[in-house]
Write the structure tokens for this entry.
Amino acid sequence: MDSSLAWFDAILTLTLVVVALRVLFAQDLFQAIVLFIVFGLLLSLAWCRLGAVDVALAEAAIGAGLTGALFLNTLATTRRHGDQAPPAETIDRKGAWVDDKLPTLRPRPSTPWTGRLAFGLVAGSVTAWMAAVVVPLAVSSDAPRIAIDEAMLRSGVTNPVTAVLLNFRAYDTLLEVAVLMLAVLTVSSLTAGSARVSKALPSGPVLTSFVRLILPVVVMVAVYVLWSGTKAPGGAFQAAALLGAGGVLLLVTDTQSPSCARYLRRVLLVAGLAVFLLVGLGGMLGAGRFLEYPPAWAGVLITLVETVLTVSIALVLVMLFVGTSPTGAEGSARASDETPGATPLVSRERTS
Amino acid sequence: MNVLILGVAFFLLVNVVAGLVRVWRGPTALDRMLASQLFGTTGTAILLLLAEGLSNPALRDVALVFALLAPIATVVFVRRWPLSSSANGGSFHEHE
């Protein structure tokens, strides 16, 4: 048993390093994206082997699932808006895409060696400094574990990761959500005014049935992951990534999306941050410190914050996808006024 | 039993490494995308085996997420990639 596990770990680690190097150095951006998706999958396996199932869940949902979709979408968009339109010979006889005609990184002028040396020195000394700080911490005793075990009793949840994220270090999570809000605000303001997500091609029977089958399951698993986050691996970010992936599916297929009024979308978008802040301020009034929950209420408050956060983060992820889409901003709200199966992507490309 | 389960998990990982050759060498975007789809399936299987072999039931949740989210990138690829859409009008529908 041990030997096959040891081999498993060895091959996994080696493959991770090789794939990571290839992602960084591949000239062909499409290959880099596909390898990045694979890297996410393998990394998720590695987190599982390290016993960090919460991180593995997040990596599987965000790294391997949504980020790959976002990158593919962005590459498709930048290629279409790029200065050189793809000539016809990028398609070979079988209708597939010929590899060496794909968009590649433009070769940059090389940095002089003094610059490289300076950069290497700075990066090296920062790494050494971080090692000097972190390595002695790893040697120390069981003290942190004992402290956490004691604090867990007052945290309101039984999953230590959720306790850290939403109770002990809730401040960090609050700021993370604020960063996500900033990102989506930036993307929305950059793409504001440009058209809607195109639902150009009518999706065939296979894709339509697939979406119909998978969407209810995605929603159900998202709720399950959110709910189990209080006592087992799971939580708001993972659930939101699942919901967001469901939203992306709706956006790229011509399934009839639930339309919602613009103000409602905005309210839902900020609801997570707002509720989190209100709970934090409430703690200030009740327990005396910002984001300090009264122990009796901790479980309820954490579940409330996580639930609202899930909706908001899912919407953020969908909006980010909309922002990187070929025809721009809005999204499901305007999808209703698009005639089903309107202009195919290809002919639209020719007219533009 | 555990030896068998973990051995199969190891075998599947070697399969992933073999599939990486296809992602690496292409030659077409379609080849790369299909190979990465294989990893979604294989990854789910590996996680289920690890959940059994290491008796850590939480890994089954990760497998569930793997299985649900692996197709997303492919759907986006098929829908949003202009040239694969034109391939859609060509080779894919010829057989219908």
